[in-house]
């Protein structure tokens, strides 16, 4: 099937209207549509319009409150908690971000604990505004069990992405956003949808046998990246976005989930650090650019986020191509 | 050659005497000897007595000041900076640790920036006392270029270990400590010393060609674990332990180093988080134990640090075996 060309604003409007028609109020629809639009614009289709079906399913089943209002409180000088009230994460993030930035600037660093939210978006979009405010930032969130623990045979950890970003006053920020799984579940879903095979070593089927069939992996488990080391990272994410902030581990989120296809209730952990307060107030930025120059000087090496930057420029100038399949699906919602 | 059996106290005394004879004062010798002893006791020989030769070389060449006194100051409510005065890291860590713990308990989380130190020890030993104080802690440090950036062909990042620990009031803390390289440089050195081959995919020689010869890898470069994702982690470590705190990147540390075989001057970044302040003051610990139970319930899976715990118990009860080669080397110092 042929693709459809949309402008960035078309994407935003399409997403927003679909969410409004399915139970989101204006504020929530705008916040979720923004996250979807940014993913689509940056070339990450797996987290773009393709996810609308899941968002809508969660609204329709009543699992997610599309009219939730986040409640923000300071738990300590450097800890902000935002309770999403059972809504999607984007509005909670949007409203609490300035509190995080302010607390980091006052204390040197600060943490944001998001609880009682449903997270279905891409993390780099959430880290980027904090990084654009001149702070180093990290975010992580868990999901439903999809990844084997080191040495184990049953999915226990979520795909558990970690995003980390570094501010660059005069250039596109350096941000990486990577699943603790060898491959993001969204990418596996995309492969399943498009009928592609997965690279060997990506996952196992429900019986624990290696397979390259994305549909079988979706019913089985993914491997962590880099063996036991990636599994350590996945465990760390469970502890930060679950145990630390008083939210669900992936296995608990799955136990409580109604299986409507949308994101389970869970938490997210984010922290922000102000490099200007660490003793090299005038020099930290120029200094860090030297590292980035060294990376870019090597043939074949590129900075994390570089592909996103190019996709974004291209999308803004030329629009975004959406598959007919996804478009039909959205019209059906 | 046969091995020599030492008690834990023998190891400590051997290390301490050797350091005292080669330029450390009492406080520095005791702090470094403690780190060496803990590595040896926990079964990590690559960071134990084997490293004395490097410590001594750095003292003899005058690169490291064995009588340095760390200076501690608060850069912000949640930032402690300790300037090691060109000494080894252990004394700086020992003296600043309580400041970090206190700042984390006052603010919810806090960071420790170690600058002007020479780091040659294992990170879990440094994280463990903070974790034993009831806090979640993370530490990272860079070194000299040893690891390829994603897509690159020349070593740029250090092996850049990251340690992360979670407090358990009634059990051995869960701590992982892992190099961003597929294998720690210490392990490669051990393989070179003992004449073992490395697993395929560990590193490349000086011309960028894959090799399993540890001596060639020591002259070439290691790969990051898990491909570009591990390289992202290595980059993050450069930024936190270098750019953020105003210390050297690995490539800068190497440029300035005199090549005496000891550790270059550099920095370390650590942070501590108080789980009791994140909204689940009474429940966080019992809750987290449920995750650990789920991991341990899977055949073949074990908690990070479990092998260390068993080695430590064994060493305390039965002593530590040291190779004759290492013993001869130490006597020569």
Structural features, described:
2 copies of one chain form a homodimer. Chain A has helices spanning 8-21, 26-41, 52-60, 89-107, 124-132, 185-194, 214-219, 228-244, 250-256, 284-296, 306-318, 324-332, and strands spanning 3-6, 71-76, 79-88, 109-118, 136-141, 162-166, 174-178, 203-204, 210-211, 221-222, 265-273, 320-323. The first copy, chain A, is α+β, with helices and mostly antiparallel strands. Chain A has one domain (3-181, 224-280, 305-332): 2-Layer Sandwich (Ribosomal Protein S8, Chain: A, domain 1). A 7-stranded mixed β-sheet of chain A has the order 2-3-4-11-5-6-7, sandwiched between helices. In chain A, strands 9-8-10 form a 3-stranded antiparallel β-sheet. A two-stranded antiparallel ribbon of chain A has the order 1-12. In chain A, strand 8 and strand 9 form a beta hairpin. The radius of gyration of chain A is 19 Å and the shape is globular. The model of chain A has no long low-confidence stretch (mean pLDDT 95).
Summarize the structure.
The structure is a homodimer of 333-residue chains. Chain A has 12 helices and 12 strands.
């Amino acid at each position: 099937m042929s693709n459809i060309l949309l402008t960035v604003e078309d994407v935003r409007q399409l997403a927003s209207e679909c969410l409004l028609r399915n139970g989101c109020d204006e504020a929530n629809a705008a916040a979720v549509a923004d996250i979807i639009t940014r993913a689509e614009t940056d070339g990450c289709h797996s987290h773009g319009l393709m996810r609308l079906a899941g968002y809508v399913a969660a609204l329709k089943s009543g699992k997610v409150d599309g009219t939730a209002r986040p409640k923000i409180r300071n738990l300590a000088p450097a800890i902000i908690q935002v309770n999403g009230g059972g809504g999607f994460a984007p509005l909670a993030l949007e409203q609490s971000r300035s509190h995080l930035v302010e607390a980091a600037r006052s204390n040197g660093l600060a943490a944001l604990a998001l609880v009682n939210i449903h997270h279905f978006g891409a993390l780099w979009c959430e880290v980027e505004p904090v990084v654009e405010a001149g702070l180093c930032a990290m975010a992580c969130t868990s999901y439903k069990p999809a990844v084997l623990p080191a040495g184990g045979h049953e999915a226990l950890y979520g795909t558990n992405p970690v995003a980390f970003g570094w501010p660059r006053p005069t250039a596109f920020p350096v941000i990486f956003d990577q699943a603790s799984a060898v491959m993001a579940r969204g990418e596996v879903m995309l492969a399943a949808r498009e009928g592609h095979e997965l690279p060997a070593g990506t996952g196992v089927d429900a019986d624990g046998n290696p397979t390259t069939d994305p549909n079988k992996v979706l019913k089985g488990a993914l491997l962590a990246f880099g063996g036991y080391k990636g599994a350590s990272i996945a465990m760390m994410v469970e502890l930060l976005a679950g145990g630390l902030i008083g939210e669900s581990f992936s296995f608990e989120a799955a136990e409580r989930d109604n299986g409507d296809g949308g994101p389970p209730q869970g938490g997210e952990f984010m922290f922000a650090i102000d490099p200007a307060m660490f003793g090299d107030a005038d020099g930290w930025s120029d200094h860090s650019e030297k590292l980035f120059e060294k990376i870019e000087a090597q043939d074949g090496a590129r900075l994390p986020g570089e592909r996103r930057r190019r996709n974004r420029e291209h999308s803004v100038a030329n629009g975004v191509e959406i598959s007919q399949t996804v478009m039909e699906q959205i019209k059906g919602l």
